[in-house]
Specification:
- This protein is of the alpha/beta class.
- Helices cover 41% and strands 16% of the residues.
- The protein has eleven helices and ten strands.
- Helix 3 links the parallel strand 3 and strand 4.
- The chain starts with 17 loop residues before the first strand and ends in a 7-residue tail after the last helix.
- Bound molecules: pyridoxal-5'-phosphate (PLP).
- Pyridoxal-5'-phosphate (PLP) binds next to helix 3, strand 7 and helix 7.
């Protein structure tokens, strides 16, 4: 695959670390060796997966002469934080449209990513009700800015279109190169599956390279069949965009919905266990909305014998730890007497 012909800004300056998790694997005690790909350490304020996608999306915006970026997300969106961060770096304005997926969940004084929107100097925040037509809401903001002489460019939620997904095709290639250099044979990869660009890009990259590494997605929002259809469609659009003739077979796309719990962004006991276990064995911070639920899926699947005995399983850490600070009460232990 020749990704070099697509414009990008060069936000990913070095491969993110790929590490074995000896203490976590031992504590899990489920007959697998867990490795982690540290995309939480990507550049961009507080890091995370959207940097890889924005590398390509913002290059496209600049190529089209844009001076302003509009995007959307949930009230604690990592994607919004990183889009704003890279827009700042590029000297562009950034406007956010936030969807209250949980009723009354927006508070202008909330901590976590919301605090960072303010700190990084967001130009405007428009809050809309859950279930709103987000492309239409962003278009309204764009029309108002155009009337003021601005040149806005809209990046879809999660930067999950075929341009953004190139970032995760590139991550798949980076990962395969690292596994070769380190001499590690990975049997299975586990990835969070939200707006689908990450999962779709990884699958496209693995299939496009005939890697033979099965990928399991852990959904954080939508039902299994809906999510799988979204990932499959975007993965095939992305392969087509790159010019790869191979197609993704439907059975290669798995996105379990068993770990969502009561809904998007709402805590589950298994997510809390996963976040605490990784923090207390490896000093690595997951997040409550994506990587924590994805890791709770990996843990449960390992305990159920889903992976072959002694398998090397690679977990993609997509970042998101700033959201922890908007969930303090969720993670607080009972006070220790003494
Ligand atoms: C957006 C996000 C994801 C999900 O990635 P998608 O490409 O939207 O599926 C996972 N983890 C974190 C921390 C995110 O911000």
């Amino acid at each position: 695959m020749n990704l070099a012909r697509f414009p990008r800004r060069g936000y990913v300056t070095t491969p993110t670390p790929l590490e074995f998790l000896p203490n976590f694997s031992k504590a899990l005690n489920a007959g697998i060796n867990v490795y982690i790909k540290r995309d939480d350490l990507l550049p961009g304020a507080a890091g995370g997966n959207k940097t890889r996608k924005l590398d390509f999306c913002i290059a496209d915006a600049l190529r089209q002469g844009a001076d302003t970026i509009i995007t959307c997300g949930a009230v604690q969106s990592n994607h919004c934080r990183l889009t704003l961060a890279w827009a700042v770096k590029e000297g562009m304005d950034c406007h956010l449209v936030l969807e209250e997926r949980v009723k009354n969940s927006y508070s202008p004084t909330a901590s976590g990513n919301n605090f960072l929107f303010q700190l990084l100097g967001v130009k405007s925040v428009t809050v809309v009700a859950g279930g709103s037509d987000m492309p239409a809401e962003m278009e309204k903001v764009a029309a108002a800015l155009r009337a003021q002489g601005k040149k806005p460019y809209i990046i879809p939620g999660g930067a999950s279109n075929r341009i953004g997904a190139l970032g995760y095709v590139s991550c798949a290639e980076e990962t395969l190169r690292q596994l070769f250099d380190l001499g590690i044979a990975i049997d299975h990869m586990v990835v969070p599956s939200g707006s689908a660009g990450t999962h779709a890009g990884i699958i496209a990259g693995m299939i496009g390279n005939n890697a033979g590494i099965p990928v399991t997605g852990i959904g954080v929002n939508r039902k299994k069949d809906v999510q799988q259809a979204a990932v499959l469609k975007l993965a095939n659009e992305t392969l087509d965009f790159i010019g790869v003739t191979a197609q993704v077979p439907a059975e290669a796309v798995i996105a379990f919905d068993d770990y969502v719990g009561p809904g998007y962004s709402l805590p589950t006991p298994a997510m809390i266990e996963a976040v605490k276990l990784l923090a207390r064995t490896e000093s690595i911070l997951l997040d409550p909305v994506y990587s924590g639920k994805a890791m709770s899926g990996l843990i449960d699947l390992a305990r159920k014998g889903y992976f072959p005995n002694n398998a090397n399983v690679l977990f993609l850490h997509t970042g998101g730890s700033p959201a922890l600070y908007a969930y303090l009460d969720t993670f607080r232990d009972a006070p220790v007497a003494g």
